[in-house]
Structures are given as structure tokens and as C-alpha cells.
Amino acid sequence: MTDATANAAVPMGRKARRSLLEPIVLGVALALIVLFSTTIPGFASLGNLSVILSNSTSLVILACGMAVVVISRGLDLSQIAAMVAGATTFSTLINAGLPAAAALALAVLAMALIGFVNGWLIAFVEIPAMLATLATAMFMTGLFRFGVLRGDYLLILPKSNPAVVFFKSDLLPGLTAPVALMIVALVVTGLVLRFSTTGRIIYGMGDNFQAARLSGLPVRNTIVFVYVYSALAALLAGLVIASASGTVDFRIVTNGSLLFEVILVVVLGGIPLRGGRGGVRNLLVGAALIAVLRNGMTLYDFSTQTQDMLKGVILMAAIFVDNYLNPRDAETDTAGDL
Amino acid sequence: MSRRPIVALENVTKRYGAIAALEAANFDLYPGEIHALVGENGAGKSTLCKLIAGVMPPTEGVLRIDDAPVAFSAPKDASRLGISMVFQETSLVPQLTVAQNMVLGRERAFNSVRKVRNTARQALQRLNFNVDASQLAGALSAAKRQMVEIARAVLNDARVIIFDEPTASLTPEETEHLFDLMKALRRRGVAMIFISHALEEALAHADRVTVLRNGRLMVTGPAADFDRAGLIRHMIGEDLAKRDPTAAARRPPPAAAPVLQVENLRMGAMVNNMSFSVFPGEITGIAGLIGSGRSEAARVVVGHTKRNFGGGRIWLNGREVRYGSPAEAIADGVAYVSEDRKLDGFFETLGVSENIGLGWLAKFGRRRWIAPAPTMRALAQEWRTRLSIRATGSDQPVLHLSGGNQQKVVIAKSLAQQPRLIIFDEPTRGVDVGAIAEIHTIIRDLARSGAGVVVISSYLPEILDLSDRILVAKSGTIAAEFVRSEATAEKVLQAAIH
To answer: Which intervals hold domain ABC transporter (chain B) (predicted)?
Structure first.
């Protein structure tokens, strides 16, 4: 019973399935903090910390949605397009004079519909997630740019609108609305994953889809839920970004680097793309690394291109380390046919 | 025989984990001989062949080719020494032409399309096979694919050819042709092994026959020394053949109405007009060879796969049902424990409690929004005690459990749904002896509690041990039905094989 002694040190099973990548990434993030603090004057200040935090709110909110999708063994490439589409819907409606609450309700409905279409294509038409979400992303971007913006890529928000003001206000001294919304997103995601029936099914589906289906779990409905959840997270992130900058900018979709960062946060935190594992803590670790890195590189005055290259290298290194630490299990290759 | 064997196995053992697929086997093959291997599913026939063909290495023992010990690391090492295997599921690349397949792995850096095609065409013609060399392999019928594989083996100057159930997909004429060809190859000194479930075939065409049972070579001898009944006796073992069936007979069959009635079920090529009934409180065993359509029929019943259009009817407690998904079946209390727990049985990285809890949620989670860990753990604790599942804790990942305990978790996952009808597909495959007995007790208790229980098993002793009524499936239909008191291993096997 060597297994028993090995596991006795581990209090409960959640740890047993944690990715080995997580502590490494956490270590790297801490090392970066030390490096930046010593080499960049002003990095370790309270002011910079709040900059790091407020700059990563939308990223973390997006990653909350993406994490739920990835744990269910899916992938949502339409998330950034949904984010911009959601913000556009909301902005257009308040520009047209609708009260903020009604505009918000309509935007939520529109985003739920987008998530539903994604989920329906994947669960019922059985199109691979990557293709289905890529298609809806293209469709949405085209539809909103030409249908709503008439070919333009920028939409200006009314700065004085109470809703816009709310999304960038301070709720409490030191607690801005975006940060509060990020915390809410993290808590809700954590609760859904750990305590809800749907959360259990998401892990089961990600671990073994066929077993989940054969066990009689409502797998198709859960797929739809997951993509609706992702689209709603995208809407929230879109509102935060749009209110902070005062504009909705479609170039976020076309340059693609935000989507890459969201996936980076999820994967670096130790949520494998094959699904079934990970949780909110992994998300925080991945986000910590990306946020610190982003901030440090900006302070070093690296060009966007250099930053992109570095992020690419980091993703490759992470995948390499992960494959090295989690080699394919010989036990799982046992032949069933004797 | 005074000649030197071309292939010799000395005390060869092959283990998968703790289970020996082949144990201390001594086997000789001489040039110019046709050697038949017979035995039940899982007796070790395929393992023996794969060892000779270099598909995998033996765990212990020595393999000699032409008296020299060899250690193959890949099939191509064996093929270099002239050993070819014709697989049951053919190993042709469907996207390549017949000719390209025949030279596959032996191409030079540059290949002339015409030369390759001519070589292939000549090889096929020499064997009198009517196959177009420029056709895509994927477009061929099963029989023609088999022909291409044989032609490939001959083209590779094979001195040893191993056929894994070569006649299973052939028509009678094609079978006749294949055996004529094998006899022609024999005259050229080629040694051949063929696995077959058709015992008459083995007796009529082989020079020698070897019978395997549970990974052991039982007997080898000239085909003329055996008859069908003798072979079957060796396949099932003396003790099983002699066992008194009446001693095992338990209660009389209950007179209740059937839980499940299946009538003329058809699904693809696998299930062909299958009809049977399952009664509450009794264990219905379904025996048969692998590929006889038992699992496929079960999967249609539980809504995993769809039957053909107009492909029969299914009644549950007298009400006609047609499940579109397993979820609907489970809502009605119909559960299925799959034959391959790793593939679609358990959730490997999740703990024992989550595995059992997910099964329970499927039935009782419909109006339940939250499923906190303590609730799931308490549920798991209950099932761990009831089925004596040995794990270090309710959260130990299932992958770290032994095969028997994994299987018990999968069973608990279904039992937590309180099924009225439960179908076990190979419930003790890859499970150690102690756990087999425990799982059998669980299955018997279930039947005693009044549920309808179906056990699908390729292992005859299991079927005979457990079942109150035995159905024998053959080529997608139920070929025979026995009450337990009338069933013997010989009768069941006679009905299951051709």
C-alpha cells in the first residue's frame, strides 16, 4: 500500500488531480516579481499594484468563462468577438436613449443567444468546438461591424451615461467597480464549478465524455450552458473595457492577441485543454503570471511585437514542461484484448 | 517430425499488469504445415500470434526463429525474417491503392507508379485473386481486403503467415478458395497458423491443432486425432464439462411478467433480428463470441445507439420505449455497465465519490441545483461499504485503484441510480479473482432484490455460474436459450460457434 502512504500526506482528492504546472508557474510569477522589483524603479509600489490589478480585470473575467469551457473539454474562439458584440449592443442601445437597465437586459439576452447558438452547433449539430466558435466569431464580427457600425471599427460611448460611469467608478475607497466585478466573476465561477450539479457534470464531461453520456448525464444541455456562460462572461468583460476606454474597438478582435492571452491564462494556470481538471485557483495563478509579465514588459518599454514573441515562447515552454512532467501513462495503454 | 521447427516458443509468458494472457507456452511450427489455434475468446490465441509476429515482446521466455533466439522490437523485425500476420481487422491504409498498400513499408526512395502497380498485379494474378491493383483499399469488400493482405504476405516472401480468423468475413466460396491457396503455399514450404472459431474448418484443413484455454496451451496434436466434441472438451476444461448442472440450479424461473422484451431488434450489420425477454428477479446470461451483437443490442436498449429504421420494438414493463439518449433510459431505471470501464465507464481523474455521485446525479439531480462535496462523499461512503470498495479515501482518483475496485466503482455509479433493469457487459473483465467473487455476489443480490439483471459475458464459466437462464447470441441473433438446469458448457459453446 505505497499508494496509501503517498496519499495520506494529501488531505483530499482535489490536490491529487492538480496539475504540476501550477506550482511552477506560480514560482515563475514570484521570480518575475522579484526581478522586476529590483530592476524597475517603482514596480513594487502600491500605485503600480493597482495598475496591474485594474489592467487585468477584463482578462480574468474572460478567463473565468474560458476556464469553464475548457474544463468541459471545449474551446471558445468566439469569446472576444462576443465581448465586442456585447459591448456594441449595449452601447448602441444607450446611445439610442434606452435606460441602462433595459439596454443591459437586452445585451444579456443577445449574448445568451450567441452562447446558445455556439452550444447548439457543438452539442446538437456536433460540429467541433473550434470550428463552430470560429464560424460564429467571424459571423458576429462581420454582422456588427457592417450592420451596426456601418463599416467603422470604433464606437464612442456617452461618457456621462450613468451606466458607463458606474462601470469605472469606485464602489468603496480603493475598490473599483471592475475589480469588484472581477471578484464576483471569480466567486461565481468557483461556486458553479465546485458546488453546483452543473459543475460536477462539467468535470465529468471533460474527463470522459462517453462515460458521462452513458451514465445518463444531460451532456448536451451542459454544453449549451457552458457556452452561454462564456458569452455572458464576455459581455461583462466587454462592458468593463468599453466603459474604461470610452470606446468599443473592433481591432481587439482582429489583432487576436487578447484571445491568445485568455487561453494562455487558462493553460498556464494548469487547466489542460483536454479538460476535466483545474479550477479557479489555477486561473488566478495563470492570470498572475500574465499580468505581472504584461506590466513588467510595458515598464521595460518592450514593443508589442517583442511582447508577443515572449508570450509565444512562454506558451511553448509551458507546454514543453507540462509534457515532460506529465508523460503519457503506460498504465493507460494496457491492451484490453488479450 | 524430424525437421527443424521454423518457429519455436520456449516457456513464453505474456502478462498485462498482473494478468497473464499467455502462460509458459511451448509451441513449435514446422515448414510446410498448417497449424490451427482454437480456444474461447481471451484464451490467448491472438496473444500467441502477436508475439510471433513481433507486435509485442514476451514478458518471459524465449522465441526462436530457425533455432536462433530473437527479440523483436517491432513487426518489421519479424517481417524481415519472413513472418507476416494477416489481421482480423485488416491493416490496410484505406486512402492508398491496393498496389501502394502491397509495397507499403518497402518502398524505395523513388517509386515508379507503373512498376509498383505491375508488381502488385502480378502478385495478385499469381494467386488467382480478382482484385484491381489500382483501386483504393478503402473501396474493397472485406474479403478482397483479406486477399490483398495475403498477397502482400506472399509478395514479401513470407515463410510464416499468421491468419487471425481469416474466414470470419468470407463467403463459403471465398473460404474454399483461401484454403486451396493455403495448401498451395504449404507445398512451397510456407508455415501457416490460423485462428478459427469454426472447428470443422480447423479439423478439415489443418495438419495440427493446438487448443488454448485461459492463457495455457492445453493440447497440441495432429488434426486427425481430434473430433469436434473432443476439441470443445479441451476448450472448456474437464471440470467444467463434468460439473453437474442440477447442483447449481436455484429457484424455479419466476412467473412474473417480463421487465424487458426485445423483438426483432436490428442495428447496422451487428444486430440481426434479435429477440429476447428479461424477467425480474432472475439473472439472464447472454453468451456468445465477441462480435455476436450482444453489446450492440444492449446499447440500443439503453439508448446509447439508435436501431435501424423500423428495426424492431422494445418494451419495458409492457410499455413500448424508444430511448434517444442514455439519460432517458436512466430516468426510466434502465442502466448499463459498459464492457470497457476505461473507455466509457469511469472518470479517471475524478475521485471515487465524484464518480459515484455523478451516476446518482444523473437520476436524482434533475431538481437539484447544488451537489456539495460532503453530500457526495457520504453517498460514496455508503456504497464503498456496501460493495467493499477498497480505496484510501472517497477522493482517491479512480485511475489509482485496482481493476476490481475500479469495476466496483463503475457498478456503484449505476446502482446509485436504483435501476429496475441493469445490463452488465463483461462485468469481470480484467478483474482479479477475489473481486470476481465479490462482483458476482453483488449481481446475485441485485437479482434477489427483484431487479431484472442481464449479464453479457464471453467467459463461459461466469455465464454458467451466474445465470438462471442462458441466451446464446450468434451473428446478431439469439441462437439458443437454455434454462440453467439444462445448460452445459458444451451445449452453450456448440450453439455459439459455427
So the answer is: 7-239, 235-495
Q: Which residues in chain B have their CB less than 8 angstroms from residue A210's CB?
A: 343-344
B79 touches A: beta carbon within 8 Å: no
Backbone angles phi, psi at B58, to 5 degrees: -70, 155
Q: Is B55 on the interface with A (CB under 8 A)?
A: no
Q: Is the pLDDT of residue A292 over 80?
A: yes
Q: Does A247 touch chain B (CB under 8 A)?
A: no
**Residue B100: its pLDDT value, please?**
87
> Cell numbers of B112, please?
515508379
Q: Residues 326 to 365 of B: which have CB under 8 A from any A CB?
A: 326-327, 329-331, 335-336, 338, 340, 342-351, 353-354, 357-359, 361-363, 365
Residues linked to residue B232 through DSSP beta bridges, in sequence order: none
> Does residue B478 sit in helix, strand or coil?
strand
**CA dist., res. A108 & res. A319, Å (int):** 35
3-state class (DSSP) for residue A175: strand
- Is A1 inside any structural domain? no
Task: Count Cβ atoms within 10 A of the Cβ of residue B321 and give its class: 0-12 exposed, 13-18 middle, 19 or more buried.
Answer: middle
How many structural domains is chain A composed of? 1
**CATH of span B7-236:** 3.40.50.300
Question: End-to-end distance of chain B based on CA atoms, in angstroms?
Answer: 32
Worst-scoring range by mean pLDDT, A56-70, B96-110, B230-244, B440-454? B230-244
Q: Within a domain: residue A302?
A: yes
Q: Which residues, 6+ apart, have CB-to-CB distance to B29 below 8 Å?
A: B5, B6, B7, B8, B35, B52, B160, B191, B193
Q: At CB < 8 A and 24+ separation, what contacts does A43-48 make?
A: A43/A295, A43/A296, A43/A299, A48/A295, A48/A299
Within-domain flag for A303: yes
Residue type, B22: L
Please give the pLDDT value at position B240. Answer: 60
What's the CATH fold of domain B245-496? Rossmann fold (3.40.50)
Among A17-31, B124-138, B295-309, name the most confident range: B295-309
Question: What part of A 72-111 touches B (C-beta under 8 Å)?
Answer: none
* Cα of A224 to nearest chain B Cα, Å: 16
Which whole number is the average pLDDT over B33-47? 85
Which domain covers residue A286, as residue numbers? 20-33+45-324
Per-residue pLDDT at B455 exceeds 50: yes
A/B interface, count of CB pairs below 8 Å: 141
Does any domain span residue A279?
yes
Sequence spans of domains, chain B: 7-236, 245-496
